[in-house]
Amino acid sequence: MLVLAVVFGAAVLPQIRIETDILALLPAGEQDAAASAALQRYSERLARRAVFLVGAPEPAAARKAAQQFAETLRKAQVFAEVQMEVGAGAAAADAVYVPYRYRLLSQQARERLQRGDTAALYAEALRAIYSPGALPRPLAVVEDPLNLLGDFLAQSHAAVGAARLQDGVLMVSDGRASYVMIGVQLAEGPFAAATQERLMPVIERAMAVARAQPGVSVIGSGLILHAAAATRSATREISTVGTLSMVGVVLMVLLTFRSPRPLLLSALVLGSGALAAVTACHFLFDRIHMVTLVFGTGLIGVGIDYSNHYLADQFRAPERWSPALALQHVGPGITVGMSCAVLGYLGLALAPLPGLRQMAVFCAAGLVTACASVLFWYPLLARPARRLDAPALLRISLWFDLWVGRVRRHRIAPWCAALALAAAAVGLWRLQFSDDLHQLQSSPEALMRDERALRSLLRNTPDSRLFLVRGSSPAAVLESEEALVHALQALVDRGALSGYQALSRALPSPRMQAENDRLQGEHIYGTDGLAPRLQRELGFAPEVIARERARYQASANTPLALSDWLQSAAAGPYRHLWLGPLDQGYASVVNLVDVTDIAAVRAVTSPGARYIDKVAEISTVLERYRVLAAWLISATYALIAMLLMRRYGTITALRLLSVPLGAAALTLALFGLLGISASLFNVLALFVVLGLGVDYGVFLRESGDARAATLLALLLSTVGTVLAYGLLAFSATPFIRSLGLTLLVGISLTYVLALLSQRPRCELG
What we know:
Layout lengths: L1 H11 L5 E2 L13 H15 L1 E8 L2 H18 L4 E3 L3 H11 L9 H9 L2 H12 L18 H9 L7 E3 L2 E5 L4 E8 L7 H19 L5 E6 H35 L2 H26 L2 E2 H7 L2 H4 L1 H9 L10 H27 L4 H28 L10 H18 L3 H18 L14 H14 L6 E7 L2 H21 L2 E5 L8 H15 L5 H8 L4 H12 L8 H5 L11 E4 L4 E10 L2 H5 L6 E5 H35 L1 H25 L5 H23 L4 H20 L7 H23 L9
Parallel strand pairs: 1-8
Antiparallel strand pairs: 2-6, 2-7, 3-6, 4-5, 5-6, 9-12, 9-13, 10-12, 11-12
Helix pairs in contact: 1-10, 3-8, 8-9, 9-11, 9-28, 10-13, 10-15, 11-15, 13-14, 13-15, 13-28, 14-15, 14-25, 14-27, 16-28, 17-26, 21-22, 25-26, 25-27, 26-27, 26-29, 27-29, 28-29
């Protein structure tokens, strides 16, 4: 323990890293390695982005508040970029396209020229010239009479959705208020606790400054907000669960043993277990997940079982009890109970879920160390209680044991058992399973309300569904994207989805640029093309018309290259979609917006494109692992059965296993009767029920003539464990809540069934 303490202080504590990304609990995606790497790269980019809308009834007030918001963020100098003013940037972005304008066409304009529908294009261009509300013109009428470049830019600007450039900023309105959009880029990922501690106070201060003005509201969206909320929730739960558990344990120990020494010994045991658990996870997993720490608070209830069992043994023979002799009596039971509990956790470690493996290692390392601390230290450090009269908890445990024994012997007991079995059968038959990814985490309602409001205002916020597009070269990727976009646009026209974000909307492939150049030379800038005809109708001099045709003929014959475009201001709204080199090729992402017909989107096929629905994929993984966990727990039962049979024989081993098995079945049946759906995490919680159930049965089996002391230890353990794990049933994180609720019911039933499984031999004195 001294070596462990030195290692912890020197190598663990200075470098420990806390993980808060909820998806880190799950395995990597099951697609090929290249696709997984691409999605990981894309997710990391998205994770560093945040968007804020600062709104007020009047545009001027919104702009003023947004300016204060942005300045507060900038002065802190903790963000990679805070962008509010985009006027100059927008002009620079549009200027990138001007030298290549003859090679650029919007999808609608290109389709019209391909169909030869020049009359409609001509009439629309003429009407736009005399209409005050027409598209903005980046070039004068004489240079681009049909405003083809303006039409293309309108298509490329679709990435900002409903937001429109107004007085140098992007603004959007819902009819009641005007909002200014502010984009924020983080310098690092949002899931590190240190990053959240550095950034969130700045964001909250900026919000407070903006909201201090009358009528101003701030809507935020970004993973940093959700990650920080999850961290705060987990921190509160660690504090609450740990504090209440510790208070409960302290009160029980003081009331039972009437001395602070058992309390100090218990603290030593639990501290040793926690130290070992954190150290093991640090070296095996590099970082510790916040959820592991929440789940690990249960060590307070489980690890103290061994301390309680050892110390409670003094009530077996108070006059002649000694700590050294107690080891001979309780040592085997503690060792067997610990072995079975660790087997249960190691069964949990076999699940191919990184988070659950970490929880299993945390608990197993903690329990082994806690048990070893009891076996090696207590014979030297424990002392008999000063008062020999039976404590209240001992009398309560004896009374409850006798009451359970009377129920067991009562003539209606078989009918009650039959009724319980029938209810259990009905409950198990009605039990429903849910493997929805959203059970992993639920953000606060205020954050979700902001997300919905921002999505409604911008009307172009992508959801979790996307297409991964891959190709042997950047040009091949863009060509594959264009084929995909053609199919997606048909779905947009049908109402199957609201929109999409694709790199090729702002940068055509070299092949498409060449096709656009051909179409413009054939239909727009020919001798009798649309441009000269429109210029003549508008009254331009022949030499001016000739000059513009000559400018087209002398234009650069090289396409706008992806590498040059990515470095320009024009790529800003799209840059995160380009994933770059990947596994001897290149890749990009096409985001989907508000999918309403999932089947239609799934049916889209395009060379080089792959549809990915991460939420559905992970939900499928959860379902498959739930089935796997059921097989694992069955295998764990078999392993423990062999261990118990070797020591106690077949009949006794089966009776001992009936305790956790019955508790697990009744717990799931109760969920079925109450209409509570079960998931992978409920099944995994049954590993803990298994470990504790065998623990209780073994303690009673090994008690011999010390059943009273064992009953006291079981009551102390049950109450402590329910405090430690049962309080998790009130967690704000859905899957932690499922674990806690399962353990609250399962452990309580385990205690009752353990008493029912063996005939009482004690009388209340």
